[in-house]
Design brief:
The structure holds two protein chains of two kinds. By secondary structure, chain A is of the alpha/beta class. Chain A contains 13 helices and twelve strands. Classes of the chains: A alpha/beta, B alpha/beta.
């Protein structure tokens, strides 16, 4: 455009925008900051707080400052050209274990929990479980939205994060499959998104993924450390998860620590596995990635629907119809007993159940997102069914998650 | 009877003192080990840096500034985040009141998806007809 432009941004994003501006090659980009948020305020409030108010960072009146950014001549610094190489530090660190734990914490290589220190030996053990070369580029990742550029990481980088997470080497092909997608487990959004994955195939038993009682909980080594490895790879490989720059959740999301790693209980499910429904062969080792809010909602416990005679399909349909699925659709995680209730009610395939719940023909897309100001109630959007867990009670979980891509795991062995 | 009790008491006291001396000796012996050999030093290990690689940064000089707003055309671009229309409305009122000789143009690019969704056509229009832009990025 070659014309001066000044972005208007809330002062809370200053740290992030400095990093973004640097990454874009304009470290001194003239941004006009002001106090927000803007959403929900009247014109009068905005006039008083912003137009007649001061920049919280500089203390100067906002509007004259904005004009200055448009008219004042550029400094020499603002006119610089050239290339900057970013220094990522040395390839190795030497110290006592205590010193290294502190160092890794200070450098934000961790998720604020102690890590398994990644010695060359431990990383070599991890790398034995893939035929791919350590120097092979595994993927490129950014934190999501426009908050950062894509960093590149190798198979070895993934092995380092996998060791740090406490993952066993036999989990490594799954971790590589996740890393190969470039999808972050730790999204920057101020909405506080989480990431998850559903694993199908024989690999579930091979590496000890839990798909019985506690299936979606954290108390299984494979499930938990695979999720943690994906998060650590996102933090270190993709520069995600840095509060103030690449992690801006207004409230945040506790599921960003280890995500949600689900192995379907294929043996007890009356339905085809998720991977088969997404076009893969039965028994193939597949991981399907998800993004969204998670799978827990107080809506699961609506008053007056829990009693001796349970209409599970009806309850699920009601929740679908009353939640806003405009961003991430609806995802229901059925325990095997509830899945069998659904089947016994006449929906012997997920496709039939989906058609009944959503009112959409197979393959049809949900209604487009409406205007947030119009008062129109949103539909539940896409509808995804996962079956996992034990048979010790009739429970299910329902929230907002949408599948993004499914990738084969075996190519990473 | 009293003699027997006294003997038992003396034996008990003796046992207690021996035990105490033994534990003190052990403790003293331990302290002597630490002090004799110096403080215990944890061995050092070498670990790998886990970071990935960012792309290099190519510095981009900013566009020249206007010097003055008088007679200039300023575009206000709303990229669609909720509330930006109201904010820009009150800001434009201020510009009109304080810079009456500045031409203000408002463009509503209500995709809600930020800078990346501003159309090429709009950037071209600003290049041809405008002198500067104020872009409402959100929040």
């Amino acid at each position: 455009m070659k014309k001066p432009a000044v972005p208007l941004i809330l002062n809370d994003f200053e740290k992030q925008e400095k990093e973004v501006s640097l990454n874009l090659g304009m470290p001194g980009l003239r941004i006009q900051y002001f106090r927000g948020p803007v959403w929900g305020k009247t014109n009068e409030q905005l006039r008083k707080q912003i137009v007649e108010g001061n920049n919280p960072i500089t203390g100067k009146p906002v509007m004259p400052e904005l004009v200055e950014k448009l008219v004042k001549p550029l400094t020499a610094e603002e006119q610089k050209t050239g290339t900057l190489q970013q220094n990522m530090g040395p390839k190795t660190y030497t110290g006592t274990p205590d010193e290294l734990q502190k160092l890794f914490l200070q450098k934000r290589y961790t998720d604020f929990l102690p890590v398994v220190l990644p010695t060359e030996d431990k990383v070599a053990e991890m790398l034995k479980f893939t035929s791919h070369q350590p120097t092979e580029v595994l993927g490129k990742m950014n934190p999501g939205s426009e908050a950062g550029e894509a960093w590149t990481y190798t198979v070895k980088d993934a092995a380092i994060s996998a060791v740090m997470a406490g993952a066993q080497p036999e989990y490594f092909p799954v971790i590589l499959a996740l890393g190969s997608t470039g999808m972050t487990a730790v999204n920057v959004s101020d909405n506080g998104f989480m990431a998850g994955a559903v694993i199908n195939g024989k690999i579930r038993d091979e590496i000890g993924l839990n798909y019985k009682e506690g299936a979606v909980g954290p108390y299984a080594q494979a499930n938990t450390t695979i999720g943690r490895a994906w998060s650590l790879l996102s933090i270190n490989g993709g520069n995600c998860g840095k509060v103030g720059t690449t992690y801006m959740g207004t409230i945040g999301n506790p599921m960003n620590l280890i995500g949600i790693i689900i192995a379907e209980n294929e043996e007890k499910s009356p339905f085809k596995p998720l991977s088969v429904r997404r076009g893969f062969k039965e028994g193939e080792n597949i991981v399907t990635l998800f993004m969204g809010w998670g799978i827990l909602s107080a809506k699961n416990w609506a008053a007056d629907v829990w009693g001796p005679n349970m209409n599970y399909p009806g309850i699920i349909k009601e929740i679908y119809n009353t939640q806003d699925g405009s961003l991430f659709g609806t995802c229901v995680v059925l325990s095997p007993p509830v899945a069998n209730f659904v089947k016994d009610a006449g929906y012997d395939t997920v496709e039939k159940f989906t058609e009944w719940v959503t009112g959409l023909q197979p393959g049809a897309k949900p209604a487009p997102r409406g205007n947030l100001n119009s008062g129109i109630r949103m539909s539940g959007g896409t509808f995804t069914v996962i079956v996992t867990g034990g048979s010790n009670n009739n429970y299910f979980s329902m929230g907002g998650m949408v599948p993004s891509q499914s990738v084969p795991i075996d190519k990473w062995r | 009877m009293k003699l027997r009790i006294a003997v038992i008491a003396i034996l008990c006291i003796g046992l207690f003192c021996s035990a105490s001396m033994l534990s003190n000796q052990t403790y003293a012996q331990g302290k002597r080990d630490v002090s004799a050999n110096g403080p215990v030093v944890m061995p050092k290990i070498t670990v790998l840096n886990p970071m990935g690689t960012p792309p290099p940064i190519t510095l981009v000089p900013q566009a020249s500034r206007l010097g003055t707003l008088e007679g200039k055309t300023i575009y206000f671009i709303n990229t669609g985040y909720i509330g930006t229309d109201r904010l820009m409305s009150v800001m434009m009122d201020w510009f009109k009141a304080n810079y009456p000789k500045t031409n203000i143009v408002y463009k509503d690019n209500t995709s809600g998806a930020g800078l990346a969704e501003i159309s090429k056509a709009l950037w071209t229009e600003i290049s041809e007809k405008g002198d500067a832009a104020i872009v409402g990025l959100g929040h």
